[in-house]
Design brief:
5-stranded mixed beta sheet; 6-stranded mixed beta sheet; alpha/beta
Length: 419
Amino acid sequence: MIVEIVTTGTELLLGQITNTNAPYLACQMNKLGFNVLYQSTVGDNRERMMQVITTALSRADIVITSGGLGPTQGDITKEICAQAFNLKLYLHEPSNNRIKCFFSNRHAPMPESNLRQAMVPEGSVILINERGTAPGIILEKDNKVIINLPGPPHELEYMFEHSVIPYLQKRYGSQGTIVSRVLHTYGIGESALEEKIADLITTQTNPTIALLARPGEVIIRLTAKGSNESIAKQLIDELQLTIIPRISEYIFGFDDNNMETTVGQDLLNKKLSLALAESCTGGLITSRLTDIPGSSNYLCGSIVCYSNEVKIQHIGVDREIIREHGAVSQETAIAMATGIRQKFKTSLGVGVTGIAGPGGATSEKPVGLVYIAIDGPSGHRCYKHQFIGHRTEIKFRASQATLDMIRHYVHGLTLQEDI
């Protein structure tokens, strides 16, 4: 069954609120095995909304809308959908009574406009709203279904889970399930990654493979459809076993595992402790690591050594190193890593120094130049990076590269100098 999700509201088009309903509905419908092939967003305009609903009905079996069920003149979704099916509205007394009780229980006067919410299309299935005043509506005609859901996410989600899912299961039976898994990679570009699995992408059927570049990583999304979740996961497992040997050095996590989660678990498994001396990243690496519960088991501490004097006085960097090579140099990064390790008496010490910009650069040392060093039981290593982007992007990319460097060091792997 083909599904289109239509989110309504001019505030969405203006960017005044974030559209969380569309991803929620898409995720839930995919879990139920329905194919969400289209998503549309339209403002509170009768002509344009009718065009969108008509188009959706021409290409989808089920159209799910969110928003536009409120009491104001701008809430027109229900009316437009009724017109699309040539249905008239009537006052639904049970809904009318529920709305009156809603206000009465709160000892608040009910605006007359709220009665609009009790006007429903003839022949429709009414979905009780346990979290608000606007009932949901299901319209059926000629094997097409429109499901009108309220806009507030807490109302929509409750109604979907308690009313829409039982309706869909009763009407359509089991549609199987669609399961996705995400493989997170770092240290390889999207095009290069595609080349390594190009034959699998070309011949994909079920599961499907999709690549997506994100800040600091490229993800591979594997999606399978099966009669049940176990079968879908088995299909993904089989494909994953083919993919991993080709790109194992670049994979750092799966699904919700981010780089800091993976690195933290690696340090914990190896019983290693860590300290950081951060300059250009300004404590971002430490912040990311401490976002993970239990990070105190491996992260001992850090120092944001933004000035040269802090590097010298608190990290132990030799003044002559900075004078001869500069604060942004391989030599200084190594001295920072060694110094912070000695200061905190940890298994590993990391030093990061660079130019986040927009100022402070020279022809020899441009914006985005970052040196990352690590000192540990296997000796010290230092890597030179040239990142692009604005200040916060460079800081994030430097933090991602640092975490990946720690990951490789812990596993005894060697990185290329320029990634």
